[in-house]
Amino acid sequence: MDKQKEFSRVLDGFDIELIEDNLGISFDGVSPLRKGHLNSKFSLSAGPDHFVLKIYSDSFAFISPKLSSSARARAEYEALMVCRSNGLAAPTPIWLSQNALLMSHVQGTPVKDLPITKEILTDILSWLKRFYSIQVSNPLLNIGVPDLPFVAARKHIARYVSNNPDDALVRELEQMLLSLHWISSDQKTLTHGDPTLGNWLLFDHELSAVDFEFFTAGFPLFDSGLLIASVLDHGEFSHGAFEKSEYVIRNFMQNFVSESYNDLPNAILCGLVLIAVSVPDSERRQRIFRHIKSTMEWAPIIIGAKLKGQQHG
Q1: Whose CA is closest to 192, among 134, 247, 249?
Q2: How far is Cα 193 from Cα 75, in angstroms, rounded to an integer?
Q3: pLDDT tens by residue, 32-56
Q4: How many Cβ atoms from other residues are within 10 Å of residue 64's Cβ?
Q5: Cα–Cα–Cα angle for 150, 179, 197, rounded to 5 degrees
Q6: What is the average pLDDT value for the chain, to the nearest integer?
Q7: How far apart are CA 110 and CA 89, in angstroms?
Q8: What is the pTM of this model?
């Protein structure tokens, strides 16, 4: 089998010559990194240089045309260009097509595969603080869906309920989502869109952000909900997980969420629902669903204590 046929087989029919002709290089190796319903990632090599090719699917287009494969490829490209221009650790974008993006390979272990410490969370929050401080330019205002976690959680839970009509707990969660109304006067910033623990790489004490396909000019509130939900799930809703999540909540309230702090529990709800519906393990999914209600009782208490401390500070 010649090289082009082998590459096409591994890349599910993608024509690697499109990239080679455009960049004037010849790849000599390819291997799959991950294949999922949102995207597929492949490792490419050209001599000593290593790259990642990400090919996007249209599985999220049912939520919004702004989440088509081409729109998400463009969003990630723009986000990586912003990171490169502002000295933030992330892959370097190299080549963009209709539904694919070639970027540099970034070494590192996904944070989700490590013990989560406050030091790691501090590094994530510091990275996000720099990202949120970048001025939003007009061309970026129309990228993505600013309230995506809210919109996606509603649509995914509705699908789940239609397939599991006898699950009373999930029907109750659906009603909670349907009752939410977001009122935020926080200023829009650039947001990662999916800053869960799997989208951070740690190598030699340096933290890099990856997977920006849901990048948008939106509200840190939604990033906070996804990150906190990820920390809770990673720690299996243990006492330590709640303690670390409280640390993240306090940081977001102090630095990023100035007016919409009352919506933080709802943002966490959306994040937990999205994590639950995405996991293939039904037992784990139900475990997350069961913990959502107790989390929704815990979060307002933490936020109220933080506000009380501010008033007496």
Answers
A1: 134
A2: 10
A3: 999 888 999 999 999 999 999 999 9
A4: 15
A5: 30
A6: 90
A7: 14
A8: 0.93
Is the distance from CB of 54 to CB of 44 less than 8 angstroms? no
**What's the CA gap between 29 and 164, in Å, rounded?**
44
Share of the chain above pLDDT 90, in %: 68
SS (H, E, C) the chain: CCHHHHHHHHCCCCCCHHHHHHHCCCCCEEEEEEECCCEEEEEEEECCEEEEEEEECCCCCCCCHHHCHHHHHHHHHHHHHHHHHCCCCCCCEEEECCCEEEEECCCCEEHHHCCCCHHHHHHHHHHHHHHHCCCCCHHHCCCCCCCHHHHHHHHHHHHHHHHCCCCHHHHHHHHHHHCCCCCCCCCCEEECCCCCHHHEEEECCEEEECCCCCCEEECHHHHHHHHHHHHHHHCCCCHHHHHHHHHHHHHHHHHCCCCCHHHHHHHHHHHHHHHHHHCCCHHHHHHHHHHHHHHHHHHHHHHHHHHHHHHHC
Whether the predicted pLDDT of 58 surpasses 60 = yes
Q: Which two tokens stand for residue 173?
A: 């969660």
